[in-house]
Structures
1.
Amino acid sequence: MPSVIDNSCIKCGLCASICPVSAMHLADTQMVIDPEVCIDCGACIAECPQGAITPDSEASAETVQFNAEQAKIAPSA
């Protein structure tokens, strides 16, 4: 199961710098994770200074949907 980023994200980009598969995308208000690219390695979870990244199974349905939708339209970080 992929990870997702919630709205406490500050767009610092640390998650993108550590992601081995470039699953992070910069949306208008925050970073998002493309669920089709994420390999669920968990590296970004430990790297996030805000604690904004969780497995999708622990996130709200709205957060999961927002990440998936925004990842499709946002440029890669």
2.
Amino acid sequence: MTRIIEVAGVEVSTEHFINGERVPSATTFADISPIDGSHIGDISAGGQDEADAAVAAARAAFPAWAALGPEGRLPLLKQFAENIRQSVDKLAAVETVDNGSLLIGNVHGGMPRAAHNIEFFAERALTLNDETIDSPDVVNHVRYDPSGVSALIAPWNGPFMLTTWKAGPALAAGNTVVIKPPEWAPLTSSMMADLATDAGIPAGVLNVVQGIGEVAGAALVANPDLDRISFTGSTDTARIIGRAAADSLTPISLELGGKSPFLVFADADLDKAAQTLAMQYMNAGQVCLAGTRVFVEASIADELQLKMRQAVDKLTVGDPREKTTRMGPLIGAEHFTRVKGFVDRAIADGAQVVWGGKPHEKGGFYFPPTLLTNVEQDWEISQREVFGPVLTWQTFTSEEQALEMANNTKYGLAAMLFTRDAERVARIGRAVVAGTVWVNCFFVRDLSAPFGGCRQSGIGREGGNWSFDFFCDVKNVAIAKDSLA
């Protein structure tokens, strides 16, 4: 009998999903809701045996799945996407309880986007093998052949949507996959397996191995029969994965942390900039893309900070299931202690608290929007990713100074730029070290566009054909002209 728990009125299996079947483990780990610290359930904790079984199942299923071709996989993946759409409310409710993200955001944003991720790449795959390159002596036919078995590891801040961001192109390319859910929010990945099966996706094509990262994750990424590893998470964990993958020369794609600059010049639309600055606190600041280092031209600093304060005051902190809530809890006790530690040390170093700065009066894992000023560029708070609702504020007097400050970290994931000057946009767009530069906007991600980080914010790009560049073996078939009947 499959072990089932009920979460927000939804039944969810607590077991692994391997080769089309639910598989229990002798050991379990506790899943805790960050909303109130309550115990959601005990989840099967996998290890070497489960990881190896899942990879073997994926390997066995690969030839038939690959042989379907993009046209054969399309109806199955479109049904998978439709199943997600039909389950948006259930998925959203479970993920909110599991990771504390806003219910309204999951219903209207994350879950519909997840369905789009699957469908977009399924349709995009139809065009992959259309490219030819005409040379003087040959015609080059570019092929995107599926690479094999892919390990997909997504983070806890948006596990369902971010897993489909990987599973979409991997499955559409013809790969089979093994998903390792985050142990702090594993439940919607379990639901994903059922939705894929109900769509007719064959056994072994999509597998889910749950467990602690240091055990189940480590066993998975060390498996020499993997052909690809795609990971989104912390830079420190990426180093561990990179070392494991190196033994087998398994290609890896890494989307990692950030310490993104948010640059506001005096000619900017200050009302829009202030509203966008308040958005940096979304998901309790647990967003790798957030512009956590705010750099403001000195002449408008006071005015902008006042406008930002007015926007931040409207961010109701509370139960993420409530429609009026705009900021929920941090993911759990360990992370709450980490975020609080960053703030405490910054204050001890001499930072001044403009607002926030200490645990919210609600208690639990709630931490309010926080803004720190009087910080230095070489301080920990300016250099390390906090991954919480904590921004720093500094001023500049020249474009050169602003750019120097923006590039003064080991990261390079994103940058936000607010100005009306097109020439300045061109200059900073070229010079700032970032995989994405948002100009007078934020968090706009077209699936056709590349996404990824520079420096220690990642390796590779996702989106459009960049995803297929990773999940496929790109092949050139060069045919001599006039050589075929």
